[in-house]
Design goal:
Elements lengths: L3 E4 L13 H7 L5 E4 L2 E4 L2 E3 L4 E4 L6 E4 L8 E3 L4 E4 L1 E4 L6 E5 L4 E5 L2 E3 L2 E5 L9 E6 L2 E3 L2 E8 L2 E6 L2 E13 L3 E5 L2 E5 L4 E3 L4 E5 L2 E5 L4 E3 L4 E5 L2 E3 L6 E3 L4 E5 L2 E3 L6 E3 L4 E5 L2 E3 L6 E3 L4 E5 L2 E5 L4 E3 L4 E5 L2 E5 L4 E3 L4 E5 L2 E3 L4 E5 L4 E5 L2 E3 L3 E5 L5 E4 L2 E3 L6 E3 L4 E5 L2 E3 L6 E3 L4 E5 L2 E3 L6 E3 L6 E3 L2 E3 L6 E3 L6 E3 L2 E3 L4 E5 L6 E3 L2 E3 L3 E5 L6 E3 L2 E2 L2 E2 L38 H9 L5 H22 L11 E5 L5 H14 L8 E4 L1 H4 L7 H11 L4 E4 L15 H14 L5 E6 L1 H8 L3 H6 L2 E5 ...
Parallel strand pairs: 1-2, 2-5, 3-6, 4-7, 5-8, 6-9, 7-10, 8-11, 9-12, 10-13, 11-14, 12-15, 13-16, 14-17, 15-18, 16-18, 17-19, 18-20, 18-21, 19-22, 20-23, 21-24, 22-25, 23-26, 24-27, 25-28, 26-29, 27-30, 28-31, 29-32, 30-33, 31-34, 32-35, 33-36, 34-37, 35-38, 36-39, 37-40, 38-41, 39-42, ...
Antiparallel strand pairs: 65-66
Helix pairs in contact: 2-4, 6-7, 10-11, 10-12
Length: 840
């Protein structure tokens, strides 16, 4: 029979009431009930037998407070103990307020624990037995380090319990502890929401983990967790983070607003998720590294800050019937030796590539859809990826790209509405294409770069904006049963040295069937254009649709001819050699060489119908006088002409006086006239900073700058503007008009010449005029340049040329005094001919 024990202050509770809770517990037998009157009871309670403590007047009326400096308030050493409707206050937030010893048991119902954690210790594994704890409709608040800690052989259960304001981790499971949490509401922890270590186990149902400072759910070591119909909101790190050999299974869960990745799987951990969603992750939606594995079914990943799905190392990812929407990087990104399998998945509206496969990663796509991304699918791995029955639509750039050295098999793929080429096979890539369609692309349907030799069978290309198939110099491959219809340029374009084989190909309703460059070597076997046999070396079939055709040359296959363009007269290699022969300027030479390579690529991409990368040809030359800015500017124009990017490549050199007028209405026409003289070439503005004086007021230079900005936009493909001046002043010029910064994207720094370089300039001048410096003169000249002040009067190369002129004048006077000078004396420049330093 259960005995009731009453606890009340003196003068209350009637006869037989206990004055302290501890007295009542000591008097109670196992199974007895201790009923506590309202009030705050400052005690350290030890429950060493099966008793039930309850508040006489309901929840909130009884507080058990640990004495100051002592903890815990309640220690449970016996089985089957319970507290109902009681509030427990700890004396130190970093210590237990309620402590349950190994082998004991506790039920907290309608209770609050404040200012300390609930700590439950179970027996070690080898001791056997368990410790049991149940919390129903409880609230835990204000603890430090942890709100609830289950360690060792503990079985715990939480029902309808809330935890908040923990300065540390909300729930910690360690050892072999297990916890079943139903409708847990955990908010505002500075550490992780729930952390599992050792071999602990968690089952989470219909719960919310919100506002954790670190991971929402963290699994380490050999832990396991299942979570169903739960939400993890705005964690300060990952939503769910698995490491070690942990295992987790998520069903119908929602992860929102993680500061890092939504789902993280590391080392040898394994994650399974079904019907889940991850949204607004601060990094990846799903990140799998090491040898981790993730299997997702019917999941959604929306608006990731990094790639929605990222696999690295030897990780494995399997996604079936999943959706990726939005995101600032790739939809799916596989690197290292990772393996990604996508089945019936959809990826849309990501800022970069829908599916990107790099290094030695392998991707297998079946029945997938990629839409609205910058690029569709990018394969950059030689390990051998497979794409089958997959659709790529509405990409801003290339539909499918097989990068340099990559290997892929494409079967039944459909590419529609690409903003550039549909399919691109880069240099040295291996691609097998079986069946499929490429339609309505702004560029060429398929582009094959130098050295690539794809095997294409049964591909249909319809309505490409440019060529159906474009083969660059030295490309090849076999194209069997290819169909090209309604191409705006020649259906097949074959560049110099390309030797593709076309078998049983059909061309219909195209501007022209075949365009070839000199030296092209296509093989045509049983090919027709609008029903007429197509052979190499004979006129192509007339277009059946009556549209005007393009010529068969490479240039005309990619852009309209310009009748005013002058024929190319200078060789690119010779011009680059001339650049590198200039004395000094090593950094400038490197920068110009890089620009030339970039523009070569731009030209080739344009010829292939591919979009050009963002590029501004306008430059800022920052350097002191005499550092070769004008010389390099002149060479730059000639280089662009040799590349076919400028019509004439000539240089028009101007300064403020040539652009700025003296009265209202004069500056605009004057600037326009100077600009028009430079069309087709380079406009070189010396001392450009003078157009934006430090105290401009109503200076007409600002009008000249505004006029230049508009003209540069109106004629952006027909002129290059180079603004030159002192390094410190050019920043002011660029900042004087918002349009300048976007148009002058690159600055070349012309450094002052070193003494040895100035000597070389003098020697170059001497060689041009049939003079020679004696060894002594060379040594003295070096010393002269070394001692020369580098103030405003120093002119770098200009100073070197002036010194050479002075040396020739002094030598002429010296030789004139000789009766019969020898040939050697006539050409020798000696130390005597050097100007005295004081004269400088």
């Amino acid at each position: 029979m259960t005995t009731r024990h009453t606890v009340a202050p003196k003068g209350q509770g009637g006869r037989g009431a206990y004055r302290t809770i501890g007295e009542a517990i000591r008097a109670a037998s196992p199974g007895d009930l201790v009923v506590i009157a309202p009030g705050t009871w400052t005690e350290n309670l030890v429950l060493d037998r099966a008793v039930v403590l309850t508040a006489e007047h309901g929840r909130g009326s009884v507080v058990i407070a640990a004495p100051p400096g002592e903890a815990p308030a309640v220690t449970v050493d016996g089985p089957d103990c319970a507290l109902h409707n009681i509030t427990v206050w700890g004396s130190d937030a970093g210590l237990p307020a309620v402590s349950v010893s190994p082998g004991a048991g506790l039920v907290l119902e309608e209770c609050s624990v404040e200012g300390g954690r609930v700590q439950v210790k179970g027996p070690d594994d080898e001791e056997g037995g368990t410790t049991a704890v149940v919390l129903r409709r409880c609230r835990l608040e204000g603890a430090r380090l942890a709100g609830l800690h289950l360690a060792g052989g503990v079985r715990g259960r939480l029902e309808d319990t809330a935890m908040t304001g923990v300065d540390g981790t909300g729930v910690v499971l360690s050892g072999t502890a297990s916890l079943d949490a139903v409708r847990l509401r955990l908010e505002r922890t500075t550490g992780s929401g729930v952390r599992l270590r050792g071999r602990s186990r968690l089952r989470l149902t219909d719960s919310v983990l919100a506002g954790s400072g670190r991971a929402g759910l963290l699994l380490e070591d050999s832990t396991e967790a299942t979570a169903g119909e739960s939400r993890i909101e705005t964690p300060g790190a990952a939503g769910v983070h698995l490491t070690g050999s942990a295992r987790a299974e998520l069903t119908d869960c929602r992860i929102r607003g993680a500061a890092a990745s939504g789902l993280v799987v590391q080392e040898t951990a394994r994650l399974s998720a079904s019907g889940c969603s991850v949204a607004d992750a601060g990094a990846n939606g799903l990140l799998v590294t090491g040898s981790g594995e993730a299997e997702l079914a019917d999941c959604r990943i929306d608006r990731s800050t990094f790639s929605a799905v990222h696999l690295a190392g030897t990780a494995v990812g399997r996604l079936a019937d999943c959706r990726v929407r939005g995101g600032s990087e790739h939809g799916v990104h596989a690197t290292g030796e990772a393996r990604i399998e996508l089945t019936d998945c959809g990826i849309s509206d990501v800022a970069m590539t829908g599916v990107s496969v790099l290094e030695r990663a392998v991707a297998t796509l079946t029945g997938c859809r990629v839409a609205g991304s910058a690029a569709g699918i990018g394969i950059g791995s030689p390990a051998g990826s497979t794409v089958a029955d997959t659709t790529v639509t509405g990409t801003k750039e290339i539909g499918v790209q097989v990068a340099k050295g990559a290997t892929v098999s494409l079967a039944g793929i459909r590419i529609s509405g690409a903003g550039a080429a549909g399919l691109v096979v880069d240099e040295g890539a291996e691609a097998t294409v079986t069946g499929g369609r490429v339609e309505d692309c702004a560029g060429s349907g398929a582009v094959v770069w130098t050295g690539a030799r794809p095997e294409v069978t049964g591909l249909h290309i319809d309505r490409p904006g440019k060529n159906g198939v474009f083969l660059a110099e030295g490309a090849g491959g076999t194209f069997t049963s290819l169909e090209v219809t309604r191409a705006g340029f020649p259906a097949l374009h074959v560049a110099k040295g390309a030797d593709p084989v076309f078998r049983h190909c059909r061309i219909r309703d195209c501007a022209e069937a075949l365009g070839t460059d000199e030296g092209a070597e296509p093989v045509l076997e049983d090919c027709t254009a609008d029903g007429t046999p197509l052979t190499f070396g004979t006129p192509a079939a007339a277009p059946a649709n009556g549209r005007p055709g393009a010529t068969s040359s490479s240039a005309s296959a990619t852009k309209a001819a310009d009748d005013s363009e002058e024929p190319e007269e200078e060789n690119l290699e010779d011009l680059l050699g001339e650049l590198h022969e200039l004395v000094g300027l090593d950094r400038v030479k490197q920068d110009v060489g890089s620009l030339v390579k970039l523009m070569q690529t731009v030209r080739r991409r344009e010829e292939a119908g591919l979009p050009a990368p963002p590029l501004s040809r306008h430059l800022v030359f920052a350097g002191n006088p005499g550092t070769g800015k004008t010389t390099v500017a002149r060479l730059y124009g000639r280089l662009l002409k040799a590349l076919g990017l400028l019509r004439r490549g000539h240089l028009v050199e101007v300064d403020r006086t040539a652009l700025v007028g003296e009265y209202v209405g004069h500056t605009g026409p004057k600037t326009t006239a100077a600009f028009n003289r430079a069309l087709g070439g380079v406009l070189f503005i010396d001392e450009a900073y003078s157009l934006a004086p430090a105290f401009a007021g109503n200076d007409f230079g600002t009008e000249a700058v505004a006029t230049l900005v508009k003209l540069m936009e109106d004629h952006r493909d027909d002129v290059v503007v180079i603004a030159a001046g002192y390094p410190g002043d050019m920043h002011r010029f660029i900042g004087s008009n918002p349009g300048l910064a976007s148009r002058f994207g690159r600055t070349l720094l012309f450094e002052d010449y070193e003494p040895g370089e100035l000597v070389s300039i003098v020697e170059f001048q001497a060689g041009q005029h049939r003079y020679e410096l004696t060894p002594t003169a060379r040594t003295e000249l070096f010393s002269l340049f070394q001692a020369m002040p580098r103030g405003e009067g120093f002119g770098n190369g200009r100073s070197a040329r002036q010194i050479f002129q002075e040396m020739t004048e002094r030598q002429a006077q010296r030789v004139a005094e000789l009766t019969a000078p020898t040939a050697e004396q006539l050409i020798s420049l000696e130390a005597h001919d050097l100007p005295h330093p004081a004269a400088r």
